[in-house]
Amino acid sequence: MRRFLTPLVLATLAMPAFAEDDYIRPVQHPLTQEECSACHMAYPPSLLPARSWSEIMNTLDDHFGEDASLGEEARAEIEAYLVSAAGDANGRRFRAAPADETPLRITDLPWFNREHKREVSTRMLERAGSMSNCSACHRGAERGYFEDD
Amino acid sequence: MTSPIPSLKAAMAAAALTVLAAPVLAQDTSPDQLLSAYEAEAGASADLARGQALFTGQHTGGKPDTPSCTTCHTMDPRAKGQARTGKVIEPLAPGANPERFTETAKVEKWFGRNCNSVLGRDCTALEKADLIAWLSSL
């Protein structure tokens, strides 16, 4: 029993706190929602720490291989929102990556890969277009619900 | 008899109409107006064939993942495209999507981004005129 439970408990601890009910608070800021969702779902800000959002919002001229530049006013406003709602905002501890790392892709986080590696078939991934396309499989993703569909 | 229910209904209907009437994006221009403005800025006339060649051509100056407009918008701008993320891109040709080229700030934002992604530089006013002329002809 103990040998069975230990890996399970460890796996649960390593997952983000929100994973219990599959709800992740979506973007609450209209400009962030509008601008970020032009090319992909506006991802929940708690999935990355503040340092990651700042890095992303200051390298928009090469945003994962595309120019996603914004006017400075909009850029700064969106960065401020993302930082304020980041996974380590308000003194929370961000556990999905070591403190000395600045993850830029949610899809690179270990928990993300653990959750998706076995479940997403090649056919599902082809249909979705890429791992960036949450709502291809999680129909409630835009509203924050990431239950399996 | 005046019951409060119909007036509430009327107020809700009015509110719903207000929401429906307010466009998400401020429409301040049209493809024709933009075409004229870019032609005036360039001091030259647009050319459909040049626009088509620019749009459908493969380019080398930009980012490696986006060598052509067609990478995301496909060879048929009247059809839906797909971003590299998998997200659907609504048709670009105004004939298939009347919302296109109706907001100056949006048009400039996307020319700025996409010309840099595909060509590695800004598009000239004449190139923008050529592209709008071709897309509007479809």
Automatic annotation (TrEMBL), chain A:
Keywords assigned by UniProt, alphabetized: Signal
Pfam families reported for this sequence: DHC
InterPro entries membership: Dihaem_cytochrome-c (IPR018588)
Signal peptide: 1-19
Protein name: Dihaem cytochrome c
Source species: Celeribacter neptunius
UniProtKB/TrEMBL annotation, chain B:
Gene3D superfamilies (alphabetical): Cytochrome c-like domain
GO molecular function terms listed in the Swiss-Prot or TrEMBL record: electron transfer activity; heme binding; metal ion binding
Region span, Disordered: 56-85
Signal peptide residues on this chain, from the entry's feature table: 1-26
UniProt xrefs under Pfam families: DUF1924 (PF09086)
Record keywords, A-Z: Heme, Iron, Metal-binding, Signal
InterPro entries: Cyt_c-like_dom (IPR009056), Cyt_c-like_dom_sf (IPR036909), DUF1924_SHP (IPR015170)
Domain Cytochrome c: 46-138
Designated name of the protein: Cytochrome c domain-containing protein
Higher taxonomy: Bacteria, Pseudomonadati, Pseudomonadota, Alphaproteobacteria, Rhodobacterales
